[in-house]
């Protein structure tokens, strides 16, 4: 296997190690803050998703006027309308939006976990198949656990995922910055 990073890349990382450490610490602090109030972190996640849906709705609407043919314009316009309505719903009723997203996440995790279990089972007796099945079982169990607590856990589960992501990204960048300092 060849090295992915060149000496120039390593030098650039080394010269920016302080920024990586600082960004890592900032993301970790945000993760701790999100962990301290999962409800606010959930609402922030919903507002972020809502904002992205509004932007997507605007882009789809612009695109609807640029495609040729009435049927295509109508479909893109309908897509713009759906994105926009969903974006407004996220801002006007974040609790309902959180419940819907939490249910979708529970279903997606359960299906993904069951699929991984099936893939791991088909891989047997190959070495490592047990780990694939184990990971699938954990993912499916996470999905089923979220589904079992739904809709009450909708108030905090998205915030928990956001907090964990911020903590993991913060730790990863912090670690990368320290490694780049010593490179």
TrEMBL record:
<dbReference type="InterPro" id="IPR005325">
    <property type="entry name" value="DUF308_memb"/>
</dbReference>
<feature type="transmembrane region" description="Helical">
    <location>
        <begin position="46"/>
        <end position="62"/>
    </location>
</feature>
<keyword id="KW-0472">Membrane</keyword>
<dbReference type="InterPro" id="IPR052712">
    <property type="entry name" value="Acid_resist_chaperone_HdeD"/>
</dbReference>
<feature type="transmembrane region" description="Helical">
    <location>
        <begin position="98"/>
        <end position="119"/>
    </location>
</feature>
<dbReference type="Pfam" id="PF03729">
    <property type="entry name" value="DUF308"/>
</dbReference>
<protein>
    <submittedName>
        <fullName>Uncharacterized membrane protein HdeD (DUF308 family)</fullName>
    </submittedName>
</protein>
<feature type="transmembrane region" description="Helical">
    <location>
        <begin position="17"/>
        <end position="40"/>
    </location>
</feature>
<keyword id="KW-1133">Transmembrane helix</keyword>
<dbReference type="GO" id="GO:0005886">
    <property type="term" value="C:plasma membrane"/>
</dbReference>
<feature type="transmembrane region" description="Helical">
    <location>
        <begin position="131"/>
        <end position="150"/>
    </location>
</feature>
<feature type="transmembrane region" description="Helical">
    <location>
        <begin position="156"/>
        <end position="180"/>
    </location>
</feature>
<keyword id="KW-0812">Transmembrane</keyword>
<feature type="transmembrane region" description="Helical">
    <location>
        <begin position="74"/>
        <end position="92"/>
    </location>
</feature>
